[in-house]
Amino acid sequence: MSGIRQQIESGAWLTAERIRAYCLILLTLAVALSAIWLLLADGIIDRNGKPIGTDFSSFYAAGSLVNDGRAIEVYDAARHYARQQQVFGERTPYYAWFYPPSFLLIAAPLATLPYWLALLIWQAGSGLLYLATMAAILRKASLTPAGRRIGLLAATASPAVFINLGHGQNGFLTAGLFAGALLALPHRTVVAGVLFGLLAYKPQFALVIPLALLATRQWRAMIAAAATVVGMIGITSALFGIEAWTAFLAVSETSRKLLLEQGEVGFAKLQSTFAVMRMWGAGISLAYLAQGVVTITTVASAIWAWRLCPDWNTRAAILLIATLLASPHVLDYDLMLLGPAIAFLVAAATSGRFYGYEMTLLAFAWAVPLLTRPMAEATGIPLGLITMIALYAMVVRRAVRDGQAARHHVALATA
Asked: How far apart are CA 155 and CA 336, in angstroms?
């Protein structure tokens, strides 16, 4: 038993050969199951009567309305659903649109293409952005070329990737922009700010980022991010009319109530403290209180750790995980952000050392997106949230140790 515990603590069980084998097995299963699923489909409709790419059908219908000069109707659920029914058949389920008009800049061009081609370009293009940023993070790590290839294989075979592909969602784009901003921030702050600004289609993730930038006096990045957001509002207002923004703001309260408070998509699909409390039967007020405690604790500790820790890779991982924990609106495909967080932690550890249980927890965090929703539905156990909290505690522990070590070296140098 002590031998097993030592293996888990040290991470010695996670050899390169095992990582490669696990990834190849998962990729093979995913390709085989996807092929069967597509063979059983009737054109763009799967065997359950849903569009292939499910959520992407919402993007496609929204873009189609924009191309017809009816952008404001994207925020009218009845008309948005009518367009989905027109494209995918009357029996198609409704996939709601929760995004600001800036995301229509992506949806509209895609909707000029046939659905299959649009879905392929959307997932391949955003997927390549995600993989490019993951490769860039891994190049920062003290790994052999073979080790980097295994890391990129793990990034490709991540269960979060398959969750995002199944939904046709924007997890690749979110992870790619966020990771790209963090890669650029130390030396190209304006570029980082622009990338952060482009993330504004996910306003629920906008809490920790500006506070961390403010705490570390990243003024140029903050100005660039704000200018990007203002510019996007101006461009979309000119293209779609200011009415699109007023319509978005008008339906935001309804969207919050349906998605969060009533759990329209299912509380097991949501990965936040708020959703877990609601899944366990808590009232809305208590759920918001619990989320508020977690959010305040996360934001405060993230800012403290950012100011304390000298290692940029560790700070990047802190911001990624804190962003997920601080928001009440986190869906299973948003766990794509765990990929860059894991990669930054690997880069941090290979520059120094892995602490106890880090490798094992990173492996579990890599796998958990595949398990979290079915586990929550079957047992009520929120594996996703538990893993994010454990991962965050681990990275803050690393920040504290690295900060203490840095101060010790400074003290020795000045003694």
From this structure: 10
